[in-house]
Amino acid sequence: xxxxxxxxxxxxxxxxxxxxxxxxxxxxxxxxxxxxxxxxxxxxxxxxxxxxxxxxxxxxxxxxxxxxxxxxxxxxxxxxxxxxxxxxxxxxxxxxxxxxxxxxxxxxxxxxxxxxxxxxxxxxxxxxxxxxxxxxxxxxxxxxxxxxxxxxxxxxxxxxxxxxxxxxxxxxxxxxxxxxxxxxxxxxxxxxxxxxxxxxxxxxxxxxxxxxxxxxxxxxxxxxxxxxxxxxxxxxxxxxxxxxxxxxxxxxxxxxxxxxxxxxxxxxxxxxxxxxxxxxxxxxxxxxxxxxxxxxxxxxxxxxxxxxxxxxxxxxxxxxxxxxxxxxxxxxxxxxxxxxxxxxxxxxxxxxxxxxxxxxxxxxxxxxxxxxxxxxxxxxxxxxxxxxxxxxxxxxxxxxxxxxxxxxxxxxxxxxxxxxxxxxxxxxxxxxxxxxxxxxxxxxxxxxxxxxxxxxxxxxxxxxxxxxxxxxxxxxxxxxxxxxxxxxxxxxxxxxxxxxxxxxxxxxxxxxxxxxxxxxxxxxxxxxxxxxxxxxxxxxxxxxxxxxxxxxxxxxxxxxxxxxx
Amino acid sequence: xxxxxxxxxxxxxxxxxxxxxxxxxxxxxxxxxxxxxxxxxxxxxxxxxxxxxxxxxxxxxxxxxxxxxxxxxxxxxxxxxxxxxxxxxxxxxxxxxxxxxxxxxxxxxxxxxxxxxxxxxxxxxxxxxxxxxxxxxxxxxxxxxxxxxxxxxxxxxxxxxxxxxxxxxxxxxxxxxxxxxxxxxxxxxxxxxxxxxxxxxxxxxxxxxxxxxxxxxxxxxxxxxxxxxxxxxxxxxxxxxxxxxxxxxxxxxxxxxxxxxxxxxxxxxxxxxxxxxxxxxxxxxxxxxxxxxxxxxxxxxxxxxxxxxxxxxxxxxxxxxxxxxxxxxxxxxxxxxxxxxxxxxxxxxxxxxxxxxxxxxxxxxxxxxxxxxxxxxxxxxxxxxxxxxxxxxxxxxxxxxxxxxxxxxxxxxxxxxxxxxxxxxxxxxxxxxxxxxxxxxxxxxxxxxxxxxxxxxxxxxxxxxxxxxxxxxxxxxxxxxxxxxxxxxxxxxxxxxxxxxxxxxxxxxxxxxxxxxxxxxxxxxxxxxxxxxxxxxxxxxxxxxxxxxxxxxxxxxxxxxxxxx
Lengths: 565, 565
Description:
By secondary structure, the first copy, chain A, is an alpha/beta fold. Chain A has helices spanning about 10-20, 85-95, 105-120, 150-165, 170-180, 230-240, 265-280, 310-320, 355-370, 375-380, 390-405, 410-425, 425-440, 450-465, 475-495, 500-525, 530-540, 545-560; strands spanning about 25-30, 35, 45-55, 70-75, 100-105, 125-130, 185-190, 210-215, 225, 250-260, 285-290, 300-310, 320-325, 330.
């Protein structure tokens, strides 16, 4: 849902805010919804004037600046600006060398820019027009004029701006822009609709279980609906949609992975990893890559992949330095490297239960944590970021794998603790790592109920020092403490009797039961997600699912010690 | 819902994609989830190493580059990186002059970066740490150490990076960063939750009717829930939350309006317009302004407002040139200008009905269009962008206002047509403008039923030429044509009788009924929003609500001619 801005004043207000924030580089065209670079008109320089409906920032106004556009005309959301607005903006930008108009191929823009061009001609101002037609999903390849302009706008405007900046005349700037458009293709996908400012409901929606391939930047229906794809599958769809449409060249391409608004940057990089593999496997050499938001669609969820087949001229023009509020380049082309060898992040699930008691105990703990991963996440989400379950699983898997690489309980638990902290990350990662490692540190000699209780005391003490928690804070410590004291008491209770494994198991399981009871106290939550519920839970101190995961861990270990696993 | 990436491999995959796309500037730390600038280690230069959980791009890895950070450690989503990862990245970045660690004040980061710092010290590598604590909502002003680091990270990292770049030693870089943090404050608001990669449901949600003030970048509960606010109201809340917390200075401030992920850029500019007014009214001088996405929270909807109180040193360091994948600056500080006088966009609703028949007819048409604005929008959304109702209302209001400024039907309709096209924009704006203007052009002399029919013929012809539509295309023309022919027939039918106003009204209303019948044929739609429904409707040619709005317009005019309005 759109929160800010009302439909009627939206355009005026955001343009005002834009020229205020970036007044160093852009100024408003008097009495018009247009912006120009602060230093226009530039005598004798071709003026590049771009535009279209708004809702696509940084396109179009954000691309006004040195080495890019001289001016941009701003229409209402997803609506062409009027001929009057185009005319005023072009007159303001014209430096006497004529105007190159650049915009996407939409009927409204064609009508209004066309009317403005005729009016300029009547006033003796020469102009040319480049209609961007990069969207392969919007028309057949035999009829490129039927295609819409989408993220490829950026390539074409950048090339035109650089050509004008280097002093080309109007025909020269036009020729460069025509070549850029002829060599640019885009294919996109959307997974969620967008909402117009002031509108009560989305302009359109995409089912939670679907993706729409080829959907237009104004929500124009796509060419194909598919189920939700993983990153690599989506990357393949984008590349497969683009490659057959690419004109031939010497292999060099500029690549743009464009976010439509709501798609997370990190997700785009996940997709780009695969895209790059596919492009290079197809013999292409991406010499200039951008991943980000260049031509957005309000808050639409989705991405588009654009490529421009380069020659020496286009490579030089595209890489030329520029500076605008929405895009700056220092002029150095990208020199991509292959991805580094990725880390062994020890995520492999153990193939089989290990031999030693520590192996079996850690594996049992991993299984129980895995079984409760979602619940731990829900508990964590009550007042924190909900990833405790994921972190615990990741940590325990790493712990199990690391323990396999050593022998002896002390060494195995030290390795497990370090690996856990490394894999789980976060505060709980560090704290669990300490618990495992310090327990291990206490088990160098013969293991008796007594030495085990000492080791647990030692680990609990280190935990308290590092975690700065006090009993009663309703943290993991409130499960550790009853575990520690119950274990100690049970061990004393068994004093005098032979110190058998059965005694150890019995004492441990009594302690685990105490930890479980304590954990239930702190974890007895309604998994509410609203602020009220989360604040209420937090005020009750019920924020730490660590108590629950600790209870699960020691319970699993107890089962192993008792021979039940 | 998150589409791309799975929880377990998300971090590895996006970092691989990132270093592949921006390999010119960054490379991966071997066997670690960290990135460093391609040219590190820089002998004798202090290494600035930042980091934290991921999900905040361009923070943190996107801020690695010349004049900014030398390295960034990448944790899992919203989770601190491990001490091991921090240690490996810092060793890779260290150029022998020591390491400045910069990160937000979160327990996990404090634990892991702290452990890494101790390990580096044991290896003879000196380090300092700056904990960013800019979030005023996360703790009391008496206890700044209790505060979290949010978007203010960017100010502090930029200053530290510039200080290291100019050659300050470790204590100097640390001192600059400490000063930047002490002078930086942030206050934010969220209107929608975010979803972790691979998670089935949002980490948290905010009610559609609420905003949460002071919500943390990981979804930590905010300090206050308010109803949805308009842009200016939200701007006031942000400014009111920030101003009392700002330390005193000479008035110069750097300002950052940061988007959390899903908030539209144009919406942020709407808010910034008001924010700037408030800041300057409070005697502050925003000498460097950025509006964009700097420290995001996956796809969270919301914004945060940050300010850093500048002195000469901070102003110079913050404005120093830098180049990283996520932020580039050519070193010229912003010199904001006040917003231009805004355009009179003729949105004022007429205060009273006008005097002339044209005034009354246009006013009546405006009223009927207003009453049907939502329905027209729904019809338009079936296969287009849903703004037809808004555009028609805006256009008719401008037409009514413009007509008021002239006298005589021809002049009034010409003015109304131009104003309509200007205000409504879009293809329909241009086409309606032509209809009004060309009808007026036909009414220069005495107005009879005959001359009116001629004028309508003339307008319809111009419309057809410009719109390139043919009868049967199911466009607005399919309502215009029956209107035109019915009017012509009715006028012939009245031939021989005295050409009274009653005859004109009668003929016009017959024609309007014909237009209404035709419009209902094209507008008989299920307002489906899914792709299937929209494609189906589009294939039926039911895409143009212009026929309906035309029928409404001529019906209202007919009522006026008939004296019913």
